[in-house]
Amino acid sequence: MLHHDDMPGETPPRYGCLECHEDAELAVADRLHPAASDRYRAHLRSCSDCRRMNQLLEAVYRGPDPAASGVAPLRLTSRDREFAAILRRVPGERPLPWYHRALHTAGVVTLATTAAALAVALVVRPGDPVLEDAPLAGISAALTRANDQDTAASSDDEPASVAPHQAQVDYGRVIAGRGYLSARGDGPPVLTDTFTVGTRFSVEPTRPAEQGQSLQVGLLGRILANFEPGTEIEWTQASPGALDLTLERGHIAVRYERQAGDPVLNIHTPSALVRVVGTVFTVEVDAEGSTNVAVLRGKVEVLNPEDQAFVADVQAGYRFELARATYADVGRNDVRVAMPLSDEMPSSGEVVSGAALSAADGTIPTSWVVPGLPAAAPLRRLENILAHPAPPQRSPADRAQTDRRAPRRYTGLLTARSSTARADDGEALIDKLVRDTHEARREAGRAALERCKNLYQSAQTRYLSARCLTRFLHEHGDDDDLVEGHLLVGILRMDFANDYPAATLAFERFLERAPTHPEAELARYRLWLAGIEDGDINAAIDRGREYLRRYPNGKYAGKILQRFPKLVSEL
Amino acid sequence: MTGAVQVFDELVAPAASPEPAHVDYLSAEEQILLAQARAGNARALRHFYDTHQTQVRSHLYRLLGPDSEIDDLVQTIFARAFAALATFKGGSTLSTWLYRITTNTTHNLLRHRFRRNRVKAAFQWWVGGRGPQSSHADVRDEATRLLQHLAPDLREVFVFYHYEGLTLQEISQILDKPLSTIGDRLTRARKRLLELVAAT
Predict the structure, then answer these.
(1) Which of A253, B30, B33, B147 has the most CB within a 10 Å radius?
(2) Helix, strand, coil % (nearest 5) of chain A?
(3) Minimal Cβ distance to B40: which of A56, A138, A259
């Protein structure tokens, strides 16, 4: 070690390496007296060893930087995997030592006998809250469920904390629109509105001078997808951990209200793997086979399909073009494709009655990020989206909105008033007027219902009919002849908002008021379906039994029987 | 918020009645989260994990340095935390409680590695003498290496105080040791580190 104690004029003669070492800790912690600090710094300038020591000590006190080392933060999918692994490990923690296990084995018979005797003596009731409130009972049950389901999953690295029931995972439904559904590998066509894994969807391309029809499907009870004309897509895999779609060409929009434990949605395209953990987005495979991903809410990861290496994160409001690896703002066409998914379920706790339900009316939801679009709800329309590479199109939804006339209510009443009522006395005249009024109101109700049904008929405007029906129920909901509105509202809340509690409420209200209605069978079937898609398997089984009891040879009996064994067996 | 508080009231009412909760340490949101997590709510567990995983991971990195076992340890720590949620009485903040679990989980590992490194160093000294130290190594790597030479008890206190920014009282609570012991360990850790730095 070099000594510089005797260097004239540089430092005070008594301040050498020994003093420097003594002061080093205080200097690094910035707690050294200013005068001493000056001497310390001056010594460092002249002594390389002490300088090195100072650097090292500073590094020790500064400590390692986890962020600079890539330790944190983890990506969302990695966190998903880790969380699932944690849940798998929980019951396995704290293994009993060998002597505890031996004692356990030896004493288990004695304990069981004692417990049985006590139980008989005390006549413990099954629903005793003391037994149910045991510490860890809830968490153990949840975690045991998660582990059971995870063991059953084919993919062992995905979240499975509250994984959906297998009966939910295996089946999907056609909600609206037209398309050709067939089994995998040019198999036979699917002729019902429910389909299973391995189904291939072909939506007929748009012909000139003809408006093509998109196809809307529901998967898992939480995924709503809109397939545009010209789309070729296949549902390739479904497990409690992952749900895979393979998009060969075309343009699709997906809304996925993912909850903890729900499977990750993977969309495979020829050039990318789009991994989704809960969002609203569109994926397009264009004519050149390149993939474009636009995200309206949430975040999507784009991965390399071969090695699943990370390619890009697409945030809400951005459109990522894989071929050019560039980001742009989402365009009008992307939003247009996603518009049938705009009837979002309100956050939990808001749904209290049918009157409080929100419904799609062609307004772009405020939760969707569309750059350049005003925040004011009346201005959040498709036509107000500024930049878009494709020529602007007038959507059928807009056309339907324009064509919609203001309801002509009570026209019958006016007619009645203008007509001459030949009555002998005033009372008869009043009776007639009341009768005419009721009839006119009923007519107006029928007309309003008809308008809503017309909106419901087209796949392009079906999601809009929820708003129409909500207004109809507000005005004519008390009329027993027009109770069908409740059924339609229930179907729409179920299909487009994935709002199963509201749908169940509507179906039950319909059945309560019109138990012998011709559509009561459909309502009971939908009630059963809503139970499954909401994950309430016990309720679904009860409703299924009720349906089969009432309609043993019913139209939907086959579908219910098809899924009944799985429902019961997995309880 | 009112709804959430009601939910919390319903969930914690039976457990809270015999012994009042330590509301000083936990915010209202944390109490709700804790009650739901205890009830096995997967969302609450996930939120708990999301909130604290960075803290646990970073602390492990600072304590152990770059290590392939960090991910495994994070899983172990959270698994233990989830299993012990029902026994957490609210006598400290959630992060302090997690630090305690982390320390209990890593302490034996630290001791084992510390002993192994001493034996290894002694063996190397005997075989080849004191070879060239990592004088050319990056200062940051060298600092991490020096920290590994600190005894586990001292290292824990040093990391908590200087890297995590905890007070002596908090460290005392985490390690369940008297305040004077913590102060003494911190002084010894600093002294030992200075010796190690001066010796390089």
Answers:
(1) A253
(2) 45, 15, 40
(3) A138
B18–chain A Cβ distance below 8 A for any pair: no
What single-letter amino acid sits at A78? S
Residue A539: what are its φ and ψ, rounded to 5°? -65, -40
User: Which residues of chain B neighbour A69 with C-beta distances below 8 Å?
Assistant: 61, 66
Q: Which single residue is written with the structure tokens 């009112």?
A: B2
Ranges of each domain in chain B: 1-113, 132-200
Cα–Cα distances (Å) from A493 to A31, A194, A457, A512, A544, in that order, read 67, 18, 16, 18, 20
**Residue numbers in A near B17 (CB within 8 A):** none
* Beta pairing, strands A171-177 & A199-202: unpaired
Higher-confidence position of A238 and A409: A238
CATH number, domain with residue A282: 2.60.120.1440
CATH architecture of the domain formed by B1-113? Orthogonal Bundle (1.10)
Asked if B194's CB is within 8 angstroms of A25's CB, the reply is yes
* pLDDT score of A185: 67
Specify which of A115-119, A244-248, B115-119, B129-133 reaches the highest per-range mean pLDDT.
Answer: A244-248
| Residue A404 CB burial class (10 angstroms; 0-12, 13-18, ≥19) | middle
Q: What's the rounded Cα separation, in Å, for the pair A24 and A66?
A: 26
For domain B132-200, give the CATH number: 1.10.10.10
Q: Name the band, by pLDDT with cuts 50, 70 and 90, for residue A35.
A: confident
Shortest Cα distance, chain B CAs vs residue A256, angstroms: 17
Indicate the burial class of B168 (C-beta count within 10 angstroms; 0-12, 13-18, 19 or more): middle
Give pTM, 2 decimals.
0.45
Contact residues, chain B, for A133 at CB < 8 Å: 14-15
| A435-493 pLDDT tens trace | 787 788 778 888 888 888 788 877 777 777 777 887 787 777 777 767 888 888 888 88
State pLDDT tens for residues B19-60.
444 446 788 778 888 888 888 777 788 888 888 988 898 898
Which of A434, A318, A340 shows the shortest CA–CA distance to A387?
Answer: A318
Of A483, A504, A489, nearest to A456 (Cα)?
A489
Q: Considering only CA atoms, which of A215, A513, A468 is closest in space to residue A357?
A: A468
Strands A242-256 and A264-268: parallel
For chain A, report the end-to-end CA distance as a whole number of angstroms. 77
| Model confidence at A514: pLDDT above 80 | yes
